[in-house]
Design brief:
The protein is of the alpha+beta class. It has helices at residues 5-14, 38-45, 104-109, 155-159, 173-181, 187-208, 216-221, 223-234, 242-249, 253-264, 268-286, 291-297, 303-314, 318-330, and strands spanning 18-28, 32-35, 51-60, 63-66, 73-75, 80-83, 89-92, 100-101, 117-122, 125-128, 139-148, 164-166.
């Protein structure tokens, strides 16, 4: 039974995945550049985002991507490398070259420059605002950022690797057009295309997982866990019990519990509770519904029960959280 692709889309909408600024980086061998941890530069590249993912699309040439503690990954023209955990990382013409460090202070100092901003790396020199001519560049990369919410509930990020490599031959055809058009399209269009690229990369990573993989993405692919997740996502307002879900997917109560813990690390009703609070936070932030109405929409019988669960998970009552979110939008 193939998993419903709508579950991944549901989650990505709920955690507000969105794209941000681009750099157009041209390099001449030998070259090596280090990017700071995403949390250090989030305020410059994606203000207001809880989590930032940096990505690089190789438009010309080749290179290597590396994070500490992991083997380097070879990148070829048309490849995409993402860093879902927001790790400090290095791109280079060959492994082991001492990198030029792009500090957080530098990122903040250049945030007002129109994007995409050209950057040239050549023989130990870094020039911002002036790319190498295409014919002189050994490697050209288009670099950008994706932001998302981690709270109240985002099981996807932890399920992704530290380096998410999407080779050109496995990428959708339109990703090549993203690279080709990166310096002529409007920034708004590029941001939207980047979001689509992330969805595509996550789905293709899911397709490549080994049979014995665990985690949220692997759970989506499992016949029984995937069906249970689909039911919860389609009808979060239903008064589900473990027995109801087990009967729908064709397992015993204990077998369903065991498979959920195996793949997701949590029992079914714990996942459902987390998903309901995530949906509730989205409705509170993006609509004018009252707390009582939101509580019913996401499956709680009363405003009081929803408020208790929300405060336990988020750290503040839903009304206070809604007010805080509105204040952040106005800043």
């Amino acid at each position: 039974m193939p998993m419903s692709r709508d579950i991944l889309s549901d989650l990505l909408r709920a955690v507000r995945v969105r794209g941000a600024v681009f750099y157009y980086v041209s390099c001449s061998d030998p070259w090596s550049a280090e990017a700071p941890p995403a949390h250090e530069i989030a305020g410059a590249v994606m203000p207001g985002c809880e989590h930032v993912i940096e990505y690089h699309m190789i438009a010309k040439g080749n290179g290597w991507a590396a994070v500490s503690g992991e083997p380097p990954v070879r990148l070829a023209s048309g490849d995409i490398a993402m860093f879902p955990q927001g790790d400090r990382h290095v791109l280079s013409s060959a492994p082991g070259i001492e990198p030029l460090r792009r500090t957080a202070e530098w990122v903040f100092s250049t945030r007002s420059i129109p994007k995409p901003m050209p950057i040239a790396y050549h023989h130990g020199v870094v020039e911002a605002g002036a790319p190498l001519p295409v014919e002189d560049a050994d490697t050209i990369a288009v670099c950008g950022f994706l932001g998302c919410d981690l709270k109240p509930f985002n099981p996807l990020i932890a399920a992704l690797p530290r380096i998410l490599h999407l080779p050109a031959e496995r990428a959708s055809g339109w990703t090549n057009r993203v690279i080709e058009q990166a310096v002529v399209e409007s920034n708004t269009m590029l941001e939207r295309l980047a979001e689509m690229m992330f969805v595509d990369a996550a789905r293709r990573y899911l397709d490549s997982l080994p049979e014995d993989a665990t985690g949220w993405l692997a759970g989506l692919r499992d016949r029984f866990v995937g069906k249970a997740l689909e039911l919860m996502h389609e009808r979060p307002d239903r008064n589900w019990t473990v027995d109801d879900i087990a009967r729908e997917v064709g397992l015993s109560r204990s077998a369903l519990h065991g498979r959920f813990v195996q793949y997701l690390g949590d029992p079914p009703m714990h996942y459902l509770a987390n998903w309901r609070i995530q949906l509730g936070s989205t409705l509170l932030r993006e609509t004018n519904r009252t707390v009582a109405a939101v509580a019913l929409d996401v499956g709680y019988e009363s405003e009081a029960a929803f408020s208790r669960a929300f405060k336990r998970m988020v750290g503040m009552p839903p009304a206070a959280w809604k007010k805080a979110q509105a204040g952040r939008k106005m800043v």
